[in-house]
Amino acid sequence: MPDESRAADAKHVRQHPLKIGVSGIRGVVGEFLTPALTAAFAQAFGTYVGAGRVIVGRDTRSSGDMLQHAVHCGLLAAGCEVIDVGILPTPTIQIFTGSSGARGGLAITASHNPMEYNALKLFGPHGLFFNHYERAELLDIYHESAFKHASNDEMHSVRSDRETPVRTHVERVLKLVDVEAIRARKFRVALDGVNGAGSELSVHFLRDVLGCELHAISVDPMKPFPREAEPKPEVLGDLSALVRDHHCDVGFAQDPDGDRLAVADETGFVIDNDEVLALAVDASLARKTGPVVVNLTTSAVIDDVAARHGAQVHRTPVGEANVVEIMTAVGAVIGGEGSNGGIIHPGVQLCRDSYTGMALLLDRMQASGKRMSELAGGLPKYHRRYGKVGFQHGRLGTVMQTLEKAFPEAQIDRQDGLKLMLEDGWIHVRSSNTEPILRYAAEAKTAARADDLLAAASKLLR
Ligand code: MG
Fold this sequence. Notes:
The chain is α/β, with parallel strands linked by helices and 462 residues long.
């Protein structure tokens, strides 16, 4: 990132120690995200979804146990029955919420945010993320303290069930692939579980279920995250070394709540996330073709892969909920978001799931007889560049117009900011959902053209 961009970020981006809003509740544990506040929010959740079963699970953050008790307390006070699944990945919690007849579910996780943060992810009865409207309604209940106060004879208890969610998740993923053929290959796999919620399940899944020779690091849920939580290539050096030291066929890395996946090839090289998604899409379409849904910032490599299978690609605004909504509308067979390592298969659950990704990629290697580097190398090559700039209120319209005028030949998509589609690439500018910044990205078939497009966007946006 150029220095000027860094300076702009430092000036405009404020880290919120506590945020209660339509994206839920997230904060630094201790002074800000307190048990009282968390219990009240859980009671609002219980009031909104109604008396009935609610699924609760968490990641491995040290604040998880404390917040879990606060969540239980709030839900019980609203007359809910709590099924606690303990430490499990977010997709596992979502699957169980959707398959157990629950009223809703809560995952206590701040995902890829730093260790000192924690948050609540909120799911409806199908295990899908609350939409904007539902979150606004919940927020009203919370702010007005319009809680249901269960009476003594409306009180329920907390039950534990860790086995059913794990079994259901694994069963669903196995249906997507040729399990016996994967087992027969005895793949040598490296794993970096970031000591996260997936640590135990990932070892079980890769070693016991898929018969891999597993070389794992950071799979102790009692220990802190040993690296930056987001599985970006620059923090996965230990995974790359593990792959090389043990001559592995592939390396996998997860984020703390197990929805995101990063992949290293057999040389230890960490594959671009858009290419990982493209390989998963290819693997999935090879078994069953149909519509594909990705966000506007995901690489055009998805279009090329889909075209090979005669499949149509639909593009959505950035955000898992947007992708899931359109996947449902068009009956998609696979979807996801490139840059953040999210692979979504409706046969498992309409959510990002790292286990679906691992299984599809192992299946692809097995079916093609190719190494991971050959699979990635067989994809059409695109180059992407990313930038961001501080958001100045009221300037967005002017900026977008300037950009459009600079590329009069471009096809335009205005679903999420502005995307300019050119003969040999694209530029996408949008305001972030979570920070007061404009994000922009450019893609082209050559590195030089991608640099030029990003530079052009960068110049016009400043
Ligand atoms: Mg996550």
